[in-house]
Amino acid sequence: MLSQASAETYYQSYAVVLAVLAAGVLLVGVAFLAARLIAPHRPLPAKLTTYECGIDPVGQGWSQSQVRYYIYGFLFVIFDVEAVFLFPWARIFERLGYQAVVEMGIFIGILAVGLLYAWRKGVLKWV
Amino acid sequence: MGWLDWMLLLARIVLTFFMLLFALVIVIWLERKFIADMQTRPGPLRAGPRGVLITLADGMKLFFKESFVPTLADRPVYLIAPILAVVPAFLAFSVIPWGTHVTLFGREIPFQIADLNIGILWVLAMTSMTVYAVVLAGWSSGSNYPLLGSVRSSAQMISYEVGMGLALISVLMFTGHLKMSEIVAGQGGYYWGFVPRWNFIPQFPAFLLYLIAGLAETNRPPFDLPEAESELVAGFHTEYSGWRFAMLYLGEYLNTITVAAIATTLFLGGWRGPHPSFLPWLWPIAWFALKILVIFYVYVWIRGTMPRIRYDRLMAFGWKLLIPLGLFWVLATGTIVLLPGLYGSRGRLVAVGLIVGIGMLLLLAADVLERPRSRSREGASP
Lengths: 127, 382
Prior knowledge:
heterodimer, A: about 130 residues, mainly alpha, 3 helices, B: about 375 residues, 2 domains, two-stranded antiparallel ribbon, two-stranded antiparallel sheet, 13 helices, globular, disordered C terminus
């Protein structure tokens, strides 16, 4: 449990981070204002078309892309959730003793088998 | 907190922002000079002495240029993306101690904006926000090249984020602290009386893993596929111009500095270093800057040496080498931390080091052995 004093510093440190967030947004805001004041603004239809190397652009610009990227997204979710489990464990595993390391080894092993499966299936191979 | 505390806090935030932007100006100029030196050409010369003001001149020029929104762009997302590139970089830097502290008005003022109790996690969360900036900028431009660049880079960045997370977890296991100030505090003292007790010695694989993943996370060469100017015009920021492009560029370099600063804090002892007794607050800052510059120089060196890596090799490198290595190293760190406690002798530690070394040699051997076999299989199948 947090004591009264440590709870106060706890919330204070997050208030400070909020202040940094505000300062960052303010910096972008100042940049926006400065650009508003000094940059020219003359939109022309030809200027506003999508970039293409010297010819008129074809299509709407949202083309299909390969499904492979999506598979990497899936793999990432598996290993990111693993990181979610690893972080709290890594904080206290010294107190839990060697059993905790062995258990985590089994957990990582199961996930590694998943990676190995994806590997053998050729998912990681780019054709 | 009284009004004086809030004023001091504000001063600290403003000072950190100013230092970061100043570092940015210097670092971009240094990169151009280093690269020019490697390619035997003079590099920027005209703006200021030895061209040191070139970044400032470039930045000013961008503010005088028109920043228009293409007709096909998804307007709100297109406008938000540059903000997402800059603000998380500042937020990530806010937990990094870039000096000790100075005593002003009877208060100890640390050179660190916020010492969050979840330091490492915060850094991981904020540096991964960069993915949103790249993906949203590319997707919302309504153009083919940015879209390709962003889809590509989203897969790249999330892949290397896993490796980065594993490196950070092994540091957390080794030091037992999430707080940045405690991690730096834990790196005081010396091994055998003269080698500084910095984490990069016992955690060398994690250090390498972090540096490589950091390169990929900040889209620096040889992992600069999101931009890949020879194939994708300018990648995810093709359709950006004027001050919005300046923001994306700023975010990219801020992230590079942040990654170097995190590597310094976690692995190179942060602001620690021997220094004379006068001006005790100044030397740690100088040490911190020097260590960041060393890491940055290595990054520029890599840029000057390596060609851009092909996409399939990039993903294979990340998933088939870095992530298994990271998983292995997490377990090895667990063993290294626990075994001396179980057996209580230093000899065991050396034994564990040997086992770990053998394990890594095995990994490398497995990789080498696998290569020709998979190639012949590819050749055999139609």
